[in-house]
Write a structure and sequence with these properties.
Elements lengths: L12 E5 L3 H12 L3 E6 L8 E3 L18 E4 L10 H11 L5 E7 L10 E2 L10 H15 L4 E6 L1 E3 L5 H6 L6 E2 L7 E3 H13 L9 E3 L8 H12 L7 E2 H4 L5 H7 L4 E2 L2 H6 L9 H10 L2
Parallel strand pairs: 1-2, 1-4, 2-3, 4-5, 5-7, 6-13, 7-11, 8-10, 9-12
Bound molecules: NADP nicotinamide-adenine-dinucleotide phosphate.
Length: 292
């Protein structure tokens, strides 16, 4: 099966709603493959391929942006009321387009805590945090919309320009150890390529509405940080035990340590046959090291 992004669906028109870290990477990748990609940001039109969309102040894209759109990728998180900003503002518009596909980027936070066990798409979501409950609500809104949506659940996203190296450089890294705690992660290039792979092979693959995109090796934060310090040729500071560090962490940082799970990619990589570019943090971080 085709795991090579070069022969994609060219001449398709994508709208990337929420062109932050992942959205920009995806837009760049599909443009290289001959697709049109128009991207949104909240405040200003960044270039001739971008437009403004801000659900909070009703800045809605003008009509011509939607002409001929076949594909949409939404990278926009839930709004403060826990609803989906795209459906809230653009649903009628989307229903009147001849869309082939919509991708929605969600989070593996919807699984909640599994005490380090593997979680898969077959598990019933059990979100603990308010933001994850909101996210599950947005997934439900998308599914109920009956638009042709596919949901991608993502763990921690990293890549060149947003990785532990940047944290070390900006002195924003805390080296914290917590027994048996692991995190799952995914390189931004694998998010783009996995989605493209699924689109390319749409006619031969069974449709799954919810798919995790994660690497093969959930591991502790310390392993990741240690590996970065090694590549930089620097000595990693002594770890602080979580219990001691806890009181200095922001509530959001604390909340990440309250959940411990390994995110399975079996559906994507075994059932659907996608081959990861960066199977583990070492391969992915080497890429970040060489490109930062
Ligand atoms: N970062 C992670 O580790 C992680 C992990 C799992 C899932 N996710 C989720 O995956 C998606 C992509 O992640 P990311 O880190 O690439 O996102 P990101 O860089 O934070 O980009 C989010 C985009 O959404 C836009 N946006 C936010 N609120 C909006 C609103 N009310 N109306 C219109 N646009 C709005 C932002 O606009 P501006 O460009 O104007 O800021 C930005 O372009 C997000 O939904 C994120 O929550 C992230």
């Amino acid at each position: 099966m085709n795991n090579n992004a070069s022969s994609l669906i060219n001449n398709k028109k994508f709208l990337i709603l929420g062109c932050g870290f992942t959205g920009s990477f995806f837009a760049k990748t599909i443009r290289k493959l001959g697709c049109t990609a128009l991207t949104s940001s909240r405040s200003e039109k960044r270039d001739r391929n971008s437009f403004v969309f801000n659900s909070e102040n009703s800045l809605i894209p003008e009509e011509k942006i939607f002409d001929g759109v076949t594909h949409i990728l939404s990278c926009i998180p839930p709004d403060k009321n826990g609803n989906d900003p795209v459906l809230g503002r653009l649903r009628n518009k989307l229903e009147n387009l001849s869309l082939e596909w919509i991708g929605y980027l969600s989070t593996t936070g919807v699984y909640g805590n599994s005490d380090g066990d593997w979680v898969s798409e077959k598990d019933r979501p059990n979100p603990l945090q308010k933001r994850s409950k909101n996210r599950l609500n947005c997934e439900k809104e998308w599914i109920a919309s009956r638009l042709p949506v596919q949901i991608f659940r993502l763990p921690g996203i990293y890549g060149p320009g947003r990785s532990t190296f940047d944290g070390i450089r900006n002195q924003k890294i805390r080296v914290i150890s917590k027994k048996d705690q692991v995190f799952s992660r995914v390189h931004v290039a694998d998010i783009s390529n996995a989605i493209i792979y699924i689109l390319q092979n749409k006619n031969s693959l069974k449709f799954h509405q919810i798919i995790n995109i994660a690497d093969d090796e959930p591991c502790s934060q310390i392993q990741v940080i240690q590996y970065c310090y090694d590549l930089l040729g620097l000595k990693m500071p002594e770890p602080t035990l979580f219990e001691a560090a806890k009181k200095e962490l922001s509530p959001i940082a604390q909340s990440f340590w309250m959940e411990n799970r390994r995110v399975s990619n079996k559906l994507l990589c075994e059932t659907l046959g996608y081959r990861l570019i960066y199977k583990n943090y070492k391969l992915g971080l080497k890429n970040c090291f060489l490109n930062s």
